[in-house]
Amino acid sequence: MAINAGVPQGSVLSATLFLLHINDLLKPGTFGYADDSTVAERYTSSARASGSQIQSLREAMVGRLNSSLEAVSAWGNANLVEFNAAKTQACLFSAKRSQFSPAPTFRGAAVPITDCLDILGVTLTSTLNFGPFIEAKAHLAAKKLGILAKVRQYFTQEQLLKLYQAQVRSCMEYCSHLWDGSARYQLDALEAIERRAKRIIGNDALVESKLQSLEHRRRVASLSVFYRLHFGESEWRQRLSQPRAGLAVIAAISPLFEEWLERRHGVLTYRLTQVLTGHGSFGRFLFLIGREETPGCHHCEDRPEDTVEHTVALCPAWAEHRRVLRDVVGDGDLSRPALVQAMVRSEGDWDAVSSFCEAVMLAKEEAGRVRERTSSRPSRRERHSGRRGSRDDLRPP
């Protein structure tokens, strides 16, 4: 079978290229890790909601799921990625016991509704009962501990302790912040394995000094996650209040910080990021990094400074693109704060701003390449001298 695409295996570059490849797929509500993709939606109902009201909410949720699945399928077709529809499953997490219908569809087939899902090694049941997952982990840890017991004569007690911590205990602590609140009788299976491990290691003083209890470690892990969730946003906001770089984009997003974080639409593309940050094919930026002789705009006769604001709101070269943008976002100003405000307002406004940035920045990039090809002078990046510009010393004899 011919392979006409791929990435270098086992290198840092391969992971970076893969992230760039799937960036357009990971919209709000769509999550990916390696080659696993998960789409999530939710609905909220009151305790007194009738059956018909709940059914209506579920149908609306399934409609949103189908839209997300259609977007995933379209992305796969555009990027030559094949999704296995037969392995696709759905699970409803709810305290309601009523039958779930209708089922979401993916590539023309109904997605089966199951009572549990395995996501990245964690078994999630529809009632969020982690008993089956804990039981499976206890069984796996017991098998590993049995192997350790058979070879213990070849290791010192300290080596046995390290092997237990690395191979057995790590298995019993996987994603413990999710299931730490499980019933005591479910967690007792893990405690029994640790008691057996202590007997195998044998050195009580060593174990007591270097082996914290499973319960203590689970509580610390859970509290650490909770702390990051609770205080992470405030710490992030604190750092953004005293920025050292990216002043313009931070000033644009800060007034709408919560709306930006909580939005359910929109993906930052390469060229949209260029416009928000000002780091792209703008005369001012190219001048600052030594790519242009002046910061002037090549599309205007009087050569004003080519900034983000000039490109988006003033430059006559992009008048038609600007008209299309204004038809969607309105006739207000087109400063970066105004663009961010429009983007968080609705998915349609976000797409309009993104389309404008894609079209205009692509045209500016192509115009820049044409100028470099037709110019009689070498581009500034080709005119470095000295140690950085000379490569003769790096060539093989």
TrEMBL record:
Domain Reverse transcriptase: 1-111
InterPro entries named in the record: RT_dom
Segments for region (Disordered): 367-397
Extent of Basic residues compositional bias: 378-388
Protein name listed in UniProt: Uncharacterized protein LOC126912962
